[in-house]
């Protein structure tokens, strides 16, 4: 029987994404990502929830850190694959975002993920890299990879992202 000593809890707080979007809408994608990385703009709620943090931002490339925890575990005793999938989606999306001018958006068309080894709460911090492989005026192609604290590749992904012009 499980007792209260086995219970865990986690809380998090975030800044209204609407307010951040209002400020960010005047900036290029690269400026937005730089502002989040430097702390001038707060991270989006999903980054706080999933424990993603930007480490490096350049044109067409981002590097993020992720700290997996027990809160990400599935019933078989490993971090759920959705964490790696969401991390890769963030990496490729943010890499694409760095190439866009102010007012231009994007959305994922597809995401293909390959899981190469399991992730545990002791695997982190994970380091993820997202890179644009081809910029297009309508579609951006990007790839991502995640390595564990020992530098072992745990997952990779590729994505196509639709460029959304200003309204």
Q: What would you note in describing this structure?
A:
Helices cover 25% and strands 32% of the residues. The chain has one domain (18-164): Hotdog Thioesterase (Thiol Ester Dehydrase, Chain A, Roll). It is globular. The mean pLDDT is 95. By secondary structure, the protein is of the alpha+beta class. The termini are far apart. Strands 1-2-4-5-6-3 form a six-stranded antiparallel β-sheet.
In short:
The protein has 167 residues and is of the alpha+beta class. The chain is built from 4 helices and 6 strands.
Summary keywords:
alpha+beta; 167 residues
| Residue runs with pLDDT of under 50 for 5 or more positions | none
Describe the largest sheet.
6 strands, antiparallel
Please tell me the total number of domains: 1
Structural class: alpha+beta
List the helices and strands and how they pair.
Blueprint lengths: L16 H8 L4 H10 L6 H6 L1 E7 L2 E6 L14 H17 L7 E11 L10 E9 L4 E9 L5 E12 L3
């Amino acid at each position: 029987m499980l007792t209260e000593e086995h219970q865990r809890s986690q809380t998090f707080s975030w800044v209204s994404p609407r307010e951040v979007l209002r400020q960010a809408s005047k900036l290029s994608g690269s400026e937005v990502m730089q502002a989040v990385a430097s702390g001038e703009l707060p991270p989006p709620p999903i980054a706080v929830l999933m424990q993603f943090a930007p480490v490096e931002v350049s044109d067409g490339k981002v590097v993020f850190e992720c700290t997996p925890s027990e809160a990400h575990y599935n019933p078989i005793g490993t971090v759920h694959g959705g964490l790696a999938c969401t991390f890769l989606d963030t990496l490729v999306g943010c890499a694409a975002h760095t190439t866009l001018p102010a007012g231009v958006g994007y959305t994922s068309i597809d995401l293909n993920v390959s899981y190469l080894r399991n992730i545990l709460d002791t695997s982190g911090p994970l380091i993820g890299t997202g890179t644009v492989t081809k910029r297009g005026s309508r579609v951006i192609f990007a790839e991502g990879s995640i390595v564990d604290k020992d530098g072992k590749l745990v997952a990779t992904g590729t994505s196509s992202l639709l460029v959304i012009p200003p309204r």
